[in-house]
Amino acid sequence: MTRFSSLLTAASAVLALSTVTPVSAQTVSNAAQVQSGNYAVEPGHTQVGFSVLHFGFTNYFGAFSNASGTLELNAKNPSASKLSVTIPVASVQTTSTKLTDELKSAQWFDAAKFADATFVSTSVKLTGQNNATVNGNLTLHGVTKPLTLAVHFIGAGVNPMDKKYTTGFEATGTLNRSDFGIKMYVPYVSDTVTLRIAGAFEKQD
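^ thats the sequence. predicted structure below, dont judge the formating
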């Protein structure tokens, strides 16, 4: 094969690759088109982030992982949807090993005594095409209080990795940790806690 022929073959291969349609996990961007049904939390891509104002200097961030739970999703009648999530408190992580261990102690979350935090929805109200307000009860540190989450639909489709139909949401909310008996260093470390949640759910039926 001549050098020219080799170059031509290589160029053809590059051109062929450039025309391949990239695989996309997100095939639906309108919440009304999501498949209704029963879903389970996909823990590997579900994160519960939180932040507090630290001594008035910085917003300090942490996160929980390994969530589990269920979503009964009704795309035609979103108000009939139901969500229940459990988060192991001992999964808490920060950028400081010392602080992470401290947060698990009795002074803070007391993970040995109160192993799980749970959120169970009580109502879902659509506020836009891809947005909803989800009210529910949060149980944390042995105390149950109402919590409101502003939820935004991200997308849904078949995950190209595991071939499972998956839907994802982002949620934000705030709470006062003293309402749950977690009062260490208030007000120097803010009472108000901001939540930012990435939730992934896999269809079960």
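The CA atoms of residues 28 and 156 lie 5 Å apart.
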